[in-house]
Amino acid sequence: MIAFLGMGLLGSNFVRALRRRGEEVQVWNRTASKARALEPIGVRVHEDAAAAVRGASRVHLTLGDDASVDDVLARVVPALEPDAVVVDHTTTTASGTRERAARLHERGITFVHAPVFMGPQQALESSGLMLVSGDPAHVAAARPHLAPMTGKLIELGPEVETAASFKLLGNLFLMFLTTGLADMLSLGKALGIAPADAVTLFEHFNPGATIGARAKRMLEAKFTEPSWELGMARKDARLMLEEAARAGVPLAVLPAIAARMDQVIAEGHASDDWTVLGKDALR
Q1: Distance between CA 15 and CA 8 in Å, rounded?
Q2: What residue ranges of the chain are covered by domains with CATH 3.40.50.720?
Q3: Integer Cα distance of 75 and 31 in angstroms
Q4: 116 pLDDT band (50/70/90 cuts)?
Q5: For range 128-152, the mean pLDDT
Q6: What pLDDT band is residue 282 in, cutting at 50, 70 and 90?
Q7: pLDDT class of 64 with cuts at 50, 70, 90
Q8: Exposure winner among 163, 243, 260, 281, fewest CB in 10 A?
Q9: What is the CA radius of gyration of the chain?
């Protein structure tokens, strides 16, 4: 028996995928109607979280944050089976994950943190990416159950909070990427280029292909052999800001980037490669 707590878009599709594989699942959700929507596929629904975990050998969590995870665990821990494993897929802080694992360990409860990079459709299709870290024995025991839930399972070592850290790193980059794309479309608007036309740039230009090389240059601190001088990059940022201001179109990210460029240029790096913007993170 598997218990699944948290029937949002991700959790409910994880459950649908489990049922397709013939697993017996009982669920709980704070808003009971979301859990009851799964009854037609043979899921046992409980309105009490503690009742949902009774008899379960594995308890999965797909909740909102550290506070919601701690709140639900406080309610269900007394009802856990002696050998039950708790697998948390929630995006949480690294510090909260570490402290949570320690508290559960003191009570003899096996806890595995396995956050994911996947959307609801990928949860249904068992594709996407799942991260996991923690006690090697716990991870090894959980692996046969986690691997079928995802297209790729990445093990990140013995520290239980490492998966939480990498999940936050990935989400941060996605936030920058998405807001940067929004800024690009806004600049296109200022320049009279329709959004649908602006995105055709990516049919020919793949900036993602440069990420590895830029990261390598940062790690090696090869800033004095520029491929694009920071001063020239700042000039381009000025042109973009001027065009946006001329059209009265606000940009969300570029002003902060320009301010950072100004700071690093003032420190004497105008002629260095623009990846010198990452120098302080390497100290």
Answers
A1: 11
A2: 2-157
A3: 16
A4: very high
A5: 96
A6: confident
A7: very high
A8: 281
A9: 23
The domain covering 166-282 belongs, at the CATH homologous superfamily level, to N-(1-d-carboxylethyl)-l-norvaline Dehydrogenase; domain 2 (1.10.1040.10)
The β-bridge relationship of strands 152-155 and 44-45 is unpaired
Look over the chain and give the mean of its residue pLDDT values, rounded to a whole number.
97
Amino acid at 73: L
State pLDDT tens for residues 21-49. Answer: 999 999 999 999 999 999 999 999 999 99
Q: CA–CA separation, 274 vs 224, rounded Å?
A: 10
Measured in Å, how far apart are the chain's first and last C-alpha atoms?
49
Q: Is 44 exposed, middle or buried (0-12, 13-18, 19+ CB in 10 A)?
A: middle
**What is the pLDDT averaged over residues 204-230?**
94
Alpha carbon 37 to chain centroid distance? Answer: 26
Where does the chain have alpha helices with state H? Answer: 9-20, 32-36, 49-53, 66-76, 94-106, 120-125, 136-146, 162-190, 195-198, 211-220, 230-247, 254-264
Query: Residue 117: in which H helix or E strand, if any?
Result: strand 116-117
Q: Residues spanned by CATH 1.10.1040.10 within the chain?
A: 166-282
Q: What's the whole-model pTM score?
A: 0.93
* Lookup result for tokens 């090389």: 213
Q: What CATH superfamily classification does 2-157 receive?
A: NAD(P)-binding Rossmann-like Domain (3.40.50.720)
